Amino acid sequence: MQPLNLMNNVAKARLLHNLLREEIPEFLGYLNELSETVLNDKERIRAEWNNGIMPADMWFKLAEQIQAVIAKYPKDLYRSANVFSDQLFDGFLAIFTRQALYNYTQLEKHTDPKFKPAVELLFT
Q1: CA distances from 100 to 3, 12, 123 (A)
Q2: HSE-up (13 A, CA, CB side) for residue 104
Q3: CA-to-CA distance for 111 and 117, rounded, in angstroms?
Q4: Mean pLDDT of 49-70
Q5: What is the pTM of this model?
């Protein structure tokens, strides 16, 4: 295994999936809910948007891409660490997914107490 500081988002997500697979279905449900909320509340989000690095429209596009991935691989995202990591944590899509992962742990929706420290170790 590579040292953490040399791992990219895809490798970290693969490791998270392999270590705590039982948490993945609930996270995927949250990720889907978050993307739906973003797409259903565009006007409010656009009015409150203050991210100077990324325009709100890019955030909406990422939410749409998340929904497309979840629709295309509904079972494989849970079953396969490779599909989970390659589809949700590669490229710009990782920005949305990592934010969702952070929100998910802050809301303490996870059931395994090891999940939050694992996410913090891998992604912060």
Answers
A1: 24, 15, 12
A2: 29
A3: 12
A4: 94
A5: 0.93
